[in-house]
Amino acid sequence: MNVLQSVVAFDTADLDAESAFWATLLGGTVQADDDWHIVSVDGVARICFQLAPNHVPPQWPDGPQQQQGHMDVYVDDMAAAHALVLANGATLLRESEDPNAAEGFQVYADPAGHPFCLCWG
After folding, report:
1. DSSP H helical segments within 8-106, as ranges?
2. Could you tell me which CATH number the domain at 8-120 has?
3. How, if at all, do strands 91-94 and 104-109 pair?
4. Which is it for the CA torsion 46, 50, 59, 21, positive or negative?
């Protein structure tokens, strides 16, 4: 058996907002169907979204609706990435303990509430 491709798929109540957010962050494009969106970068599917009208966002780091997974996105310009995700609907959940460290991360929630990290180093 050969694995030809794998992608992460997230549930969301708002396919347009969620897929547009990730397409902007990843520098990709959206292929939209009624209940499924694919974000591709350079023609390769990177992340998918499934319509889930009753989606309940996880509450990170504590809460009754726990995180079930998250994305780590490594960037070369943390300040630019931070500004980009906030301008496109993300919420900062936890700032880095030391933003000047050689490596680190900050935790955000995307428009549907899925936690993700912007990482450097």
Report:
1. 15-26, 78-87
2. 3.10.180.10
3. antiparallel
4. positive
pLDDT per residue over 1-47, tens digit each?
Answer: 676 777 888 999 999 999 999 999 999 999 999 999 999 999 999 99
- Quote the Cα angle for 107-111-113, to 5°: 60
Single-letter amino acid, residue 32: A
Quote the pTM value. Answer: 0.80
Of 2, 11, 37, give the one whose Cα is nearest residue 112.
11
| Spatial separation of the C-alpha atoms in residues 90 and 87, rounded to whole Å | 7
Coil, strand or helix at 96: coil
Contact 117, 74 (CB under 8 A): no
* Residue-wise pLDDT tens digits, 51-77: 999 998 888 888 888 777 788 899 999
What Rg value do the Cα atoms of the chain yield, rounded?
15
CA atoms of 118 and 77, how far apart (whole Å): 10
The residues, any chain, with a CB within 8 Å of residue 1's CB and separated by 6 or more, are none
